[in-house]
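Please fill in the sequence for the structure shown.

STRUCTURE ENCODING:
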């Protein structure tokens, strides 16, 4: 063995030894911090699980594994582990039990190290005296001394003196002593260091019998009460985290015994679940009991074994697991499924989630606000029909003033009045607000954010045909490249779409690398039914692609930004762009003519004083009307013509005239 490997093994042993000195039943945040430190010290997941199982608040092995995976290198190091261990009374083992500091520049031959002697928990048990009914813990808990022992000596665990402690043996499935639990006269319970409680138990009242009940309890106090009240065996599981494992083992060894899980208050859900896995039943504490109130607490409260027996007689059968709702496939001829419904035909299916990704500043927020306006008014978009219906849109990077400015330009393009178009259109700018819908705890389980309740409530009230959410960075409180978290969030949105019968459109940014069409995990692609992607082409036009479409074929639509709106472009008529550029001088000449005559003109095609229409009627327009309209839009976008500007004359009512104005020389370039 190399010196380096030997040192590494020694460091791992030292970390394991220190971990055993710390109480695993500490607060969860401290438990996680100790786990991080142990992992940094080279500790293993199996050792972490074995140590954690000794806690009365142990959740599950899966919880340990998930939490362990979440530990990343950071400020919590191995030093934290040893500091916590020393606070608990641990002392650095000497005489070969720990590696002394060595100077790497002075190598020397490895010397044989004395083997570290493991804690001999079996010897402690063997040398302890038989317990009697006079032990303070037994008397306080109204318990039994059978099978228990009392330790006498100066042993200390985690800073807790054990002299006079009641020892409860923990046997493995074959009846061999695996560990023990010490209950000191004062202080907290302690498990034998280095001896795992995993799968260990102690039975009060003899072996289980076929056809008769056997009660599974977390601690010895509950088991005493259950056995004394019923005369039936009661199993001590040494913590909630051990109950399911022991229940399964009992079912395997005694398939005809009736297993009853005795739940502490607050643990009913887990108890019912475990009972269901072993075809057993479960017992709840009286309604209104405080958290962690158990059967022995009830026994001490009522001082009546008859009352305890009556409570245990109220065992409940687990609710049967609901079967999945299977699709009806045999009656397709007589009961055909309804046709698929679209909010925007072929682009936005109802009842599912659609994701729209694009680079920053490309116009995603404008696009969904324009789409929302079209849906609320039944106006076609993307070359497709839109089914009219209410829309909820939450734009988390804009405030309401920006929403209103953008809406003014959208309505000008669509030729709609604000009062007429606003019915059923609910858009909220939420810049600076708390927008997280879902986040994740230390155990990686989903935690609903405060904004989720708002969305659910508004969907229930409005019953929208479409819910638009801008954007992932604001709404998703997880890690974008974590497949599990992304899928959980997508499933949350899919549930909203299904429950409220609406289309959900979710916006997101693309990753920085060239050619990326979304950001983070591929689950963003897999978990949605439709994925759209916006890109800006080299010619300056914007193209919206239907990249993934479970219910339609792939397609794309080309758009151009024109005075505040996205205008769809027929690429088969791209030659008109060159014609439009050629027509720009004619449009500028027409504008100069009307300005000289003090005639105010507009850029809105439906307005009576629309510049292109006036010039055509006057016979001064030296270009086709459609081409001139495109030329005017391009001049406005370039800043060479200013819409809604104050003009240098007053109308008959003495108010300043407002309309199109040639930009002063140099300002167009700045714009």
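FILLED IN BY: designer on duty
SEQUENCE:
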């Amino acid at each position: 063995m190399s010196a380096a490997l030997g040192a590494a093994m020694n460091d791992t042993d030292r970390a394991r030894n220190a971990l055993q000195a710390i109480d695993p039943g500490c607060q969860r945040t401290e438990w996680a911090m100790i786990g991080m430190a142990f992992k940094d010290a080279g500790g293993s997941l199996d050792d972490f699980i074995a140590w954690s199982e000794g806690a009365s608040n142990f959740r599950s092995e899966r919880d340990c594994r998930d939490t362990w995976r979440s530990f990343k290198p950071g400020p919590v190091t191995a030093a934290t582990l040893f500091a916590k261990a020393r606070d608990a009374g641990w002392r650095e083992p000497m005489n070969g039990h720990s590696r002394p500091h060595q100077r790497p520049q002075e190598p020397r031959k490895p010397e044989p190290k004395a083997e570290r002697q493991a804690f001999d928990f079996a010897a402690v048990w063997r040398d302890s005296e038989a317990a009697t009914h006079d032990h303070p813990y037994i008397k306080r808990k109204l318990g039994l001394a059978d099978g228990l022992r009392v330790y006498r000596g100066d042993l200390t665990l985690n800073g807790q003196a054990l002299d006079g402690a009641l020892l409860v043996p923990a046997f493995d499935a074959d009846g061999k002593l695996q560990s023990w639990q010490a209950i000191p006269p004062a202080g907290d319970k302690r498990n034998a260091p280095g001896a795992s409680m995993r799968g260990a138990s102690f039975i009060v009242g003899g072996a289980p019998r076929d056809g008769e009940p056997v009660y599974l309890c977390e601690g010895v106090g509950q088991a005493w009460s259950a056995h004394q009240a019923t005369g039936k065996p009661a199993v001590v599981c040494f913590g909630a985290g051990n109950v399911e494992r022991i229940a399964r083992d009992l079912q395997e060894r005694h398939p005809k015994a009736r297993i009853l899980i005795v739940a502490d208050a607050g643990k009913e859900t887990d108890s019912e679940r475990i009972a269901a896995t072993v075809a057993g039943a479960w017992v709840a504490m009286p309604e209104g009991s405080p958290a962690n109130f158990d059967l022995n607490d009830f026994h001490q409260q009522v001082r009546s074994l008859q009352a305890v027996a009556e409570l245990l007689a109220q065992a409940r059968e687990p609710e049967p697991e609901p079967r999945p709702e299977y699709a009806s496939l045999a009656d397709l001829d007589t009961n055909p499924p309804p046709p698929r419904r679209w909010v925007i035909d072929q682009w936005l299916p109802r009842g599912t989630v659609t994701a729209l990704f694009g680079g920053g500043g490309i116009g995603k927020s404008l696009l969904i606000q324009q789409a929302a306006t079209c849906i609320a008014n039944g106006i076609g978009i993307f070359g497709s029909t839109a089914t009219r219906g209410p829309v909820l849109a939450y734009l988390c990077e804009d405030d309401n003033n920006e929403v209103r400015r953008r809406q003014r330009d959208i309505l000008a393009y669509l030729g709609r009045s604000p009062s007429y178009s606003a019915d059923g259109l609910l858009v909220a700018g939420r810049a600076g607000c708390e927008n997280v819908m879902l986040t994740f705890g230390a155990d990686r389980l989903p935690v609903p954010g405060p904004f989720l309740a708002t969305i659910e409530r508004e969907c229930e009230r409005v019953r929208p045909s479409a819910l638009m959410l801008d954007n992932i960075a604001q709404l998703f409180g997880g890690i974008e490249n974590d497949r599990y978290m992304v899928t959980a969030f997508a499933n949350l949105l899919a549930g909203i779409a299904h429950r409220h019968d609406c289309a959900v459109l979710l916006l997101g940014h693309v990753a920085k690398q060239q050619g990326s069409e979304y950001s983070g995990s591929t689950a963003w692609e897999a978990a949605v039914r439709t994925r759209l992607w916006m890109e800006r082409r080299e010619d300056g036009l914007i193209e919206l692609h239907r990249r993934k479409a479970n219910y339609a074929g792939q397609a794309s639509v080309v758009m151009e930004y024109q005075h505040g709106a996205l205008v769809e472009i027929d690429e088969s008529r791209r030659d008109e762009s060159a014609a439009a550029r050629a027509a720009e001088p004619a449009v500028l000449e027409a504008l100069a003519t009307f300005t000289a005559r003090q005639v105010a003109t507009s850029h809105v095609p439906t307005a009576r004083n629309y510049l292109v229409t006036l010039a055509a009627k006057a016979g001064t327009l030296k270009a086709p009307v459609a081409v001139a309209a495109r030329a005017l839009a391009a001049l406005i976008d370039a800043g060479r013509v200013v819409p809604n500007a104050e003009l240098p004359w007053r109308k008959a009512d003495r108010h300043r005239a407002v309309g199109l104005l040639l930009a002063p020389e140099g300002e167009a370039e700045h714009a």
